[in-house]
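Help!! Second protein's tokens look totally different from the first
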Amino acid sequence: MSSNSNFSTMQRVVEQLRLEASVERIKVSQAAAELQQYCMQNACKDALLVGMPAGSNPFREPRSCALL
């Protein structure tokens, strides 16, 4: 029984290694350039860079009631 489970474990390991070997790889410099380009293209949509409009900010301080 032990050799059968060992065999199935090894089969799973081989399948995982085949999957990892088939992954397309790119150079780090190319990935960094693509990431930088993506960030520059989407900077206008980034709330941390351009801020949030006051009306749609869920973290703003609640207003006090003027009727009290």
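Here's the second one for comparison:
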Amino acid sequence: MAKIKITQIKSVIDRSERQKRTVEALGLKKINHSVEVEATAAIVGMVKKVNHLVAVENI
């Protein structure tokens, strides 16, 4: 599987509870925090739901 690097670029303040939980489930804790994860269908789906809050790079 391919790996992707996800970086939180915007705050989750004033976002819906669902978006906050999705960002947390991706392993992100604060702005400019990055995680490297496998690009599974579940992860890609979560990234699409919060694409306005994160930046994604292929590794």
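Reply: Different proteins will give different token patterns, so don't panic. The CA atoms of residues 12 and 21 lie 10 Å apart.
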